[in-house]
Amino acid sequence: MQRRTLLHNLLSLPALLVLGACEQGPSFNTTDVTGASYGPALRLKDQHGQVRTLADFRGKVVAIFFGYTNCPDVCPTSLMMLKEALQLMSPAEAERVQVLFVSVDPARDTPERLTMYMNAFDPRFLALTGSDAEIAAVAKEFKVYYEKKGDIAGGRYTIDHSAGCYLFGPDGRARLFARHGETAARVAADLKLLLTQT
């Protein structure tokens, strides 16, 4: 009797493993941060002067990246990766993705400069800015570090800052974090997967 029960349990194991895998949900390439409370404090003006919050983009996947236009490497590399990720998607899929670039350098990143910078990558990308206090509040909520280095008074400085992209699902919830250096193909696959979820 014990041998029959053991045999039955062993034969049932593959089915249970398959069922368990199905219950775990989709497998993402980037880091799952579902449940993190990022986003509520995000209320900044875009490069066109329009106030934006995450609620404006419900139904879309939103990619949020913090940086500044004078960044020599991390920012342009990351924005180019996001541009390439959208190019790996169908036009209909890409239209349902909104990239938001949050400037941590409001003193130098004027609306005009931000417009030129976004257009250099993709005119659909939006740049967000605000006062020093507004930027600090949003960065704190996202646990983003940034600090000016160099001749601050003379305006000749760089900014050390966290690198990575936050991905929000169509329901407005934070879902994934893509570390700097992720490939466009891996991020595109995750964006497509997020678009299938409500």
TrEMBL record:
CDD domains: SCO
Acyltransferase recorded as keyword: no
Keyword annotations: Copper, Signal
SUPFAM superfamilies named among the record's database cross-references: Thioredoxin-like
Thioredoxin domain segment(s): 19-198
Segments forming a coiled coil: none
InterPro entries found in the cross-reference section: SCO1/SenC (IPR003782), Thioredoxin-like_sf (IPR036249), Thioredoxin_domain (IPR013766)
Annotated signal peptide: 1-20
Protein family per UniProt: Belongs to the SCO1/2 family.
PANTHER family xrefs: ELECTRON TRANSPORT PROTIN SCO1/SENC FAMILY MEMBER (PTHR12151), LINALOOL DEHYDRATASE_ISOMERASE DOMAIN-CONTAINING PROTEIN (PTHR12151:SF25)
Protein's UniProt name: SCO family protein
Source organism of this protein record: Uliginosibacterium aquaticum
